[in-house]
Design brief:
This protein is 54% helix and 8% strand. The protein has helices spanning 16-29, 42-45, 52-69, 86-97, 100-104, 107-113, 122-136, 150-167, 213-222, 241-253, 258-265, 270-296, 299-328, and strands at residues 3-8, 35-40, 76-80, 142-145, 176-179. The protein binds adenosine-5'-tetraphosphate. It is an enzyme of class 6 (ligase).
């Protein structure tokens, strides 16, 4: 079956955006149609400063979130990136294949670096090359990601194509981004034009998977909305980013279409919709956060699960890296 690879950075606590936009669809891809490989990409996290004392626990939290949400370590390979050194080995080769001009066009780098592009880490700049290595180390052909990662998957194809061309062999596949349907980009609760992020400034702008029921209720109550009631028609959500986001979260959590949510709540005010949304979120998230806490209590168990996953990942990665070295003419022992 075609191989799927995707990952999450342990750069903060897991958010509702990561869950609805990534983990939930990944759970659905497990099964006979795909071989699924999911990774906690800790090497990507350190492209910006991470407190060493918190990084290992952050890695365990993301792994616990994936397990609690339904990633099954028997059906999928689940591990953390640092345990498989082949990722960085292949990334170096890709640093020598990719062109500086390609990196200069990456919009995520421009967004993250902002005004300060001279002072960010070299790792942040080279991030897409490591991401290409993550994917191509397994010859993965399908990468489920949010819309914001599409450009990086296209760059992965460019790197694969240039490698294949330069060395005269069709060795790396041309990977496809699998973008989930609309509504899968969960926005910031205080500003509906920005995405919900782990590392956003204020905790009030996101729902963390480990938030308790009162915190979830408070965050939705204080979430920015607008003075209008909910519309009857989906088209009337245009130009109302906060309303659109809250309706999309409800639809995604309840596995319904936006139309169905508006059929139920159209014409109602926020005083009715926000508590219903908070109740739904608590109902869906409480079992996951409970299981996450239980898993995180036993660090040794999570670590040995990640270690087993890493061993399985290396069985695939090692021969592909070895062959890459041979193609390039590097001696390897
Ligand atoms: N708000 C979101 N809505 C939908 N999907 C999202 N993803 C992240 N935020 C949202 C998806 O989650 C996967 C893992 O993302 P990541 O952790 O590797 O990187 P990110 O997209 O940069 O996540 P954050 O939360 O915004 O982290 P920080 O703040 O550290 O940069 C990806 O598939 C992503 O699309």
């Amino acid at each position: 079956p075609p191989r799927v690879f995707s990952g999450i950075k342990p750069s903060g606590g897991l958010t509702l955006g990561n869950y609805l936009g990534a983990i939930k669809p990944w759970v659905g891809m497990q099964g006979p149609s795909y071989q699924t490989i999911y990774c906690v990409v800790d090497l990507h996290a350190i492209t910006v400063w991470q407190e060493p004392a918190e990084l290992a626990d952050g890695t365990r939290e993301i792994a616990a979130g994936m397990l609690a949400a339904g990633i099954d370590p028997e059906k999928s390979i689940l591990f953390n990136q640092a345990r498989v050194p082949e990722h960085t080995q292949l990334a170096w080769i890709f640093n020598c294949v990719a062109r500086v001009g390609w990196m200069n066009r990456m919009t995520q780098f421009k967004d993250k670096a902002g005004e300060n592009a001279e002072a960010v880490s070299l790792g942040l700049y080279a991030y897409p090359s490591l991401m290409a290595a993550d994917i191509l180390l397994y010859h993965a052909t399908h990468v489920p990601v949010g819309e914001d990662q599409k450009q990086h998957v296209e760059l992965t194809r460019d790197i694969a194509a240039k490698f294949n061309h330069d060395f005269g062999r069709e060795f790396f596949p041309l990977t496809e981004a699998v973008i989930e349907g609309p509504g899968m980009r969960i926005m910031n609760l205080r500003d509906g034009t920005k995405k919900m992020s782990k590392s956003g400034e204020s905790d009030m702008e996101r729902i963390n998977m480990l938030d308790d029921a009162d915190t979830i209720a408070k965050k939705f109550k204080k979430a920015k909305s607008d003075p209008e009631p909910l519309p009857e028609e989906v088209s009337a959500l245009a130009g109302r980013p906060e309303a659109k986001n809250l309706v999309a979260i409800y639809a995604s959590l309840s596995d319904q279409s936006t139309e169905a949510v508006l059929a139920e709540f159209g014409g109602e005010g926020w005083g009715k919709f926000k508590p219903a949304l908070a109740d739904l979120a608590v109902e869906k998230l409480a079992p996951i956060s409970g299981e996450m806490r239980r898993l995180m209590d036993d660090k040794a168990e999570i670590d040995s699960m990640l270690e087993r996953g890493a061993e399985r990942a290396r069985e695939i990665a090692r021969p592909i890296l070895r062959e890459t070295y041979e193609i390039v003419g590097l001696q390897y022992s």
